[in-house]
Specification:
Layout (H helix, E strand, L loop, with lengths): L1 H17 L1 H35 L2 H8 L4 H14 L4 H13 L4 H13 L5 H8 L1 H25 L5
């Protein structure tokens, strides 16, 4: 992650050296956009944090670890779609769920929808991309997540 920060800082310095006025204008524009979107994201983070605090890991793992794989995949996809989590939190959660007996296929559906489908981010996305594009992106992402889950299920022999 530090390499990304360093690369961004270097690009900003190079841009500043190349054209001070345009760089300052771009930084001001980025700050305004960040200030505009920050309240929505902060609210989103607060809601997700409360939900994750209130729902114990055992409830999640017992819901996702049952014998009906198809039901578990759809339940995991639904739960992942309405939850928002960054990768550094989602993947360790996946490891905990794996220890609790959740299958790889179900974990693939859960983590893929966590990262790609955004029901909670819908208002923010709608403001920037419009309703039609946001709905289409979420539907396509959900379908891709199911395809990934099926591929993982086939690879690990859980689908057969």
């Amino acid at each position: 992650m530090y390499l990304l920060y360093i690369g961004t800082a270097l690009a900003l310095i190079i841009s500043f050296i190349a054209n001070k006025e345009r760089t300052i204008k771009a930084v001001k524009m980025a700050y305004k956009k960040l200030a505009k979107i920050a309240p929505a994201f902060l609210g989103l983070i607060i809601v997700v944090s409360i939900v994750l605090y209130l729902v114990p890991e055992q409830v999640i793992s017992s819901s996702l670890g049952n014998d009906n794989k198809l039901l578990s995949v759809f339940l995991a996809s639904f739960m992942g779609s309405i939850t928002l989590m960054p990768g550094p939190i989602a993947y360790p959660l996946g490891a905990v769920l794996l220890k609790e007996g959740v299958s790889y296929m179900v974990l693939a559906a859960f983590t893929t929808t966590l990262m790609m489908v955004g029901i909670l981010t819908f208002p923010v996305e709608k403001a920037y991309f419009g309703t039609k594009v946001t709905i289409l992106r979420n539907i396509i992402s959900f379908c891709i997540a199911l395809i990934v889950a099926a591929a993982i299920g086939l690879f690990f022999g859980e689908l057969i």
